[in-house]
Amino acid sequence: MYVDVLLGLQWGDEGKGKIVDFLAPQYDIIARFQGGPNAGHTLYVNDKKFVLHTIPSGIFHKHLANIIGNGVVINPTTLLQEIKNLESVGLTIKDNLFISRRVSLILPLHMQLDAASEKSKGDDKIGSTLRGIGPVYMDKTGRNSIKYGDIFLSNFKERYLKLKSKHQELLKLYNYSEDNAAYEEEWFKAIDALKAYQVIDSEYYIDQALKSGKKVLAEGAQGTMLDVDFGTYPFVTSSNTISGGVCSGLGIAPQKIREVYGVIKAYCTRVGSGPFPSELHDETGEKIRKNGHEFGATTGRPRRCGWLDLPAVKYACMINGVTQLIVTKVDVLNDFEEIKIGESYQIGNNTTEQFPYIVDPTLQVNYQSHPGWNCALETKEFNQLPTPLQNYINTISEKTGVEVSIISTGVGRDDLVLRS
Ligand code: GDP
Ligand code: IMO
Ligand code: MG
């Protein structure tokens, strides 16, 4: 029938997983279209916390097909671990998970190459999650990568060894070596174990599903400001995290896309290096981190925190064609006297609302101050939310020109205020 898209508009960790889990019952298929185990999507189901890295966030809904699309990269070891964790709580992953044959495999040495590359960059390092993402996408675009479908071919091991020796040569250039024989053995065991799960030609599977009236939700990983083309390059990930990535990452045509849900936090965070215009280096930033438990879901690193950056959000709305905004973690700001929104940037004498090609170190953010609401949020009705919070949300809508349709007020599945 149609494909809706849900993606992050900031630097990742906007709360995508929780919202996908909430929206999932309206769909037949949830599909990841890019990224890999660098993602960490947190869901609370019956008060129990789960962090998904490669498996789509619809997996807790038994009627749904969850697809790992061709644009994703998987590490067999971590995927198997994720599957086992979910099976241990009674989910039937063999029925609900479908892996595209065209997915690229993260090989054991991809992670070493990631670490070697980061080490060689010194202070300029990206702050990668070190899951092998950059190196595997390099192999994909360099036309070297091994696809998931290749594990069923008789020359799989041969191809693996060929690529491995290329990786070894590269590691020599980096002067980097680490013994990984035990990990490699585990990796091959995981490959064998994964053969018990469903593999599909996901482009045909989705096409058939759409023709038979089914609805698909494409789940983004990372965020627009980490997109390899439009993010704060080179401090980005290695895939297209934007709505355009859905077409290439799942093999669907653009006219099949209906709604584009853009998820933002009520403030802003970033983990890893790179420009962050509205970052706070003071006790206010510390308070946001503490209230919001802002520590990475994949690496546990503290997330950098700052005020909402509207020029960046508007840029992301433009690139993705966002049709509805979802604002998460408003409760994190419940005890602030004053809340600021970055409205424009000041670069010397120039004021601009556009996100610049290079974020100049002298760039300043022009903020608009908003009164805090200073109370807990106990309602599910927008009109009963404290007036300063309603105004805050309305400001986001007015400035972006996009309606805010969902407001998230806590970690739980139902901690939501729906506007339409
Ligand atoms: P994702 O990568 O976009 O799925 O987001 P993460 O799971 O990495 O990070 C979002 C974090 O915020 C998780 O710990 C969620 O449990 C939590 N979270 C999501 N929505 C809300 C919310 O509205 N309020 C609060 N306090 N926490 C939230
Ligand atoms: P989710 O899907 C936040 C960041 C890393 C680093 C940069 C490159 O949970 O929102 P990579 O491992 O891709 O080489 O890292 O991107 N990064 C994320 N930050 N959330 C994520 O995913 C991220 N995935 C990668 O911290 O700065
Ligand atoms: Mg995350």
Give the termini distance in whole angstroms.
22 Å
The tally of helices reads 12
> Which structural category do the helix and sheet elements fall into?
alpha/beta
The CATH topology of the largest domain is what? Adenylosuccinate Synthetase, Chain A, domain 1
Q: Mind explaining what this structure looks like?
A:
This protein has 420 residues and is an alpha/beta fold. It folds into 3 domains: 163 residues, 3-Layer(aba) Sandwich (Adenylosuccinate Synthetase, Chain A, domain 1); 91 residues, Adenylosuccinate Synthetase, subunit A, domain 2, CATH 1.10.300.10; 155 residues, Adenylosuccinate Synthetase, subunit A, domain 3 (Adenylosuccinate Synthetase, Chain A, domain 3). The protein has 12 helices and 20 strands. The strands form 5 sheets. The chain has a 10-stranded mixed sheet with strand order 9-7-5-2-10-1-11-15-19-20, with helices on both faces. Strands 14, 16, 17 and 18 form a 4-stranded mixed sheet that branches. It has a two-stranded antiparallel sheet with strand order 3-4. Helix 2 packs across helix 7, helix 4 crosses helix 5 and helix 4 runs parallel beside helix 6. The relative contact order is 0.16. The model has no long low-confidence stretch (mean pLDDT 96). Bound molecules: guanosine-5'-diphosphate, 6-O-phosphoryl inosine monophosphate and magnesium ion.
